[in-house]
Amino acid sequence: MRFPGKRTAGARAHGLLEWLDSGEEDRRRKAAGERKARTMIDKKRPDWNTSLQEMFDSISKRYDLLNSLMSFGQDRRWRKSFLELADVPERGSLLDVGAGTGEIALDAKRLHPGLKVTALDLTAGMMQVGRGKPSGGDVLWVQGDALHLPFPDKSFDIVTSGYLVRNVPDAIGAFREQLRVVKPGGRVVCLDTCPPKNHVLRPLVGLYFKVAMPLLGGLVSGQWKAYRYLPASIQAFKTPAEIAGIMGDSGLANVVWRQFMFDTVAILKGERPRAG
After folding, report:
1. Per-residue confidence at 217, pLDDT binned at 50, 70, 90?
2. Are 162 and 82 in contact (CB under 8 A)?
3. This model's pTM is above 0.90
4. Is pLDDT at 6 greater than 70 in this prediction?
5. Which of 5, 14, 178, 216 is the most buried (most CB within 10 A)?
């Protein structure tokens, strides 16, 4: 006779096997997700540039809106601090590499009307959005590769980039190209997002990157894959100290940086030696 609520040894064993199977299935799903994320951020893939162009083309129309939403409107403040640290000359020339929709380039031109500004990006769709902005015609737009800049040596007084280095397959190669085209004594300045540091808020920040960012990006843009890639690329990226080391290895000197938003946003600046 079996008492109500009691389970036989066979039933208990069956339940244990089901629990083990469900745990194994969870582990398989997690492993598959990790493999997919690694594939998404594998910059050594031969089709990397093509896939990057397609991804940014697909989100170009909602890119600025989502940047503002995801940063809680702080992206404007970061660009202001970025241009202040860059010490942009009132007159001269600025190249913004990986300019996207031109937010940095257009802000620089707006703040310094006498500045000659060139915006370069790999993705035509992003630049089309930038050209369509009220002051888009004040900037020269060039489609090109950050690893093969189509400009002569020592062409610009300052070279900037925002959210570029995290997306190129060769970070030191990108900085070397920027060093090549900036004039001696000129500055190379970059803005990018970094993985959260080990502090008390790291679990919350990590949850935001892994869950809230892909969900918000996917809902607003309809491009779920793109907004799974972006947080995955942040988690896999370098710390500011490591980026500074890469900048130094490329030949830049006097590298400094500042951090914002729980140390997940960094602005770094280096100089081309005057004797270089």
Report:
1. confident
2. yes
3. no
4. no
5. 178
Can you state the angle between helices 240-250 and 171-181, rounded to 10 degrees?
50
Residue 115: both structure tokens together: 């500045």
- Please, are residues 87 and 159 in contact by the beta-carbon 8 Å criterion? no
Q: Are 122 and 58 in contact (CB under 8 A)?
A: no
- Please state the φ and ψ torsions of residue 93, each to the nearest 5 degrees: -135, 140
Is the torsion defined by CA of 234, 238, 239, 240 positive or negative?
negative
pLDDT at 212 over 50: yes
Distances in whole angstroms, Cα of residue 133 to Cα of each of 165, 166, 273: 25, 26, 36
DSSP 1-39: -PPTT---HHHHHHHHHHHHHHHHHHHHHHHHHHHHHHH
pLDDT at residue number 34? 45
**Distance separating alpha carbons of residues 248 and 255, to the nearest angstrom:** 7
pLDDT of 204 over the 90 cut: no
- The tokens for 76 are 């404007």
Burial of 16 (0-12, 13-18, 19+ CB in 10 A): exposed
Residue 95 predicted with pLDDT over 90: yes
Q: Which of 229, 195, 197 is nearest to 213 (CA)?
A: 229
